[in-house]
Amino acid sequence: MPGEQKYKTLVSNTLLFAISNFSSKFLSIFIRIYLSYAFESPDVMGVSTLMQQVANLLIPVISLGMSYGVIRFGLDKNQDKASVFMGGLASIVTGFCGMVVLWPLVRLIPNAAEYLVLLYLCVLVSCLRTLCTQFIRSRLLNRLVAVDGVLTTFSLFLFYLLFLNVLHMGAAGYLLAMACSDALSAVFVFIAGRCAPYCKPQKFDRRLWAEMLRYCIPMIPASISFWIINASDMFYVQAMGGGYQGRSGEYWVGLLSAGYFLPQVITIMGTIFFEAWQLSAVTEEEERAAFFSSVFRVYASVLFCCVAGIVLLCRPLMLLFRSDYYDAWHMVPFLALSSLCTCLNQFLNTVYVVYKRSTYSLYTMLAGAVLNLILNYFFILAFGPWGVTLASFLSLLLVFLLRARSTRGLLEIDFHPRWLLLNLAFVLIEIWLLMTAGAWVLPVTIATAATVGLNFREVWHMAQKMLGMVKGRLRR
Predict the structure, then answer these.
(1) Taking the complete model, does pTM exceed 0.90, yes or no?
(2) Can you tell me the distance from the alpha carbon of 285 to that of 111, in angstroms, rounded to the nearest whole number?
(3) Does residue 393 lie in a domain region?
(4) Contact at 8 Å (CB) between 314 and 332?
(5) C-alpha–C-alpha distance, residues 165 and 162, integer Å
(6) pLDDT tens digits, residue range 133-187?
(7) How many structural domains comprise the chain?
(8) Structural domain that includes position 394
(9) Of the candidates 283, 256, 267, which has an alpha carbon nearest to the alpha carbon of residue 391?
(10) Does 114 fall in a domain?
(11) What's the N-to-C CA distance of the chain in angstroms?
(12) Residue 102: what pLDDT?
């Protein structure tokens, strides 16, 4: 699209996802607070979170990474969409059959044996839901995606109430609620998105499926590496945190899970933006390098401001949780920085998507995963359970640096390195003041203001554009 139109399209799509997803994302934030009261103790939350992370590990393996392929090939105007849908379904069926065969090995995963049937159910319905939602997204049915997000979050909350508060099923109820919510979502999207006309076995194309697999399979170890950086922390904490300050490993996992409450705000913002961005990144071809550079600067500015605000608010806002979760505020600052790095890494991954270089995603995430496994061990020994948050940040920072370097061979993005370093320095100073200053409120507030001031121009420019779009929609 010529001129400013590509930016208007990106802002319009971002605004659409933000408005449509606000209620679901807002509710998902407070579900975590609700869970702190629904579970008997942080230990039960810890076990539930561990099981959820096991499911998250298995999902990309079972689906053969096809969630990436469905949207990438579905957006390609030259591909038959029914063949794309059937390729995704064939991958899920193949992967799940393999998972059934490997039942004895899956049982060996820590804590998995007791919840194995529920884990398999969660994985299967999650894969089917992802297939349907990614497929309708590739058909640009963005409003339906947003509606599904609201309904899914609301149904999840209702299932939590049923299985946790009424039936008191604990960790098993937590998993069952997720499975039921995903199953309802998959059925709703399949029907409302009119996927049935594309579900034609005769449209299965082996050549296309092989091409999709070549693109997707490198994404599997990349997804596992991402999981290692983001979720292996919990298994390290469970294994090594027992006895620290007289608490069990599951207790510290529960606090770590609660610590994701505020950084989840950044992740939600990143998800909303990424849903719009991946469409623009693939479809906009003119002056792509300048487009990526401009959007990166504004996006990073917003993220740094959010991190600074979260560091400032983490201690008072943790009072929303039950009292035995308050110490989780120590987890928040570096988890917020980790979320920032995750969002920036997603942004750079779109370069690999555009040029179909999925192996680059694998190499960069694998490097971060290896570093994370090493740092988790030594940082827990040095700092206790809190050390895993710093390990995650440094590992994801390495991924960003590697991607910033490797993407330059594909697209010349201006990352403004001095500006990035100054932002990072301001946030690290803010974290240091929060952790060490007795009267922390004033100095941390000043550090937050400095970060916001550094990024004010870019954030204000974006806000003006979005306000203009809102006014335009209201007039129409």
Answers:
(1) no
(2) 48
(3) yes
(4) yes
(5) 6
(6) 888 888 878 778 878 887 888 898 899 999 988 888 888 898 999 999 999 999 9
(7) 1
(8) 244-476
(9) 256
(10) no
(11) 23
(12) 84
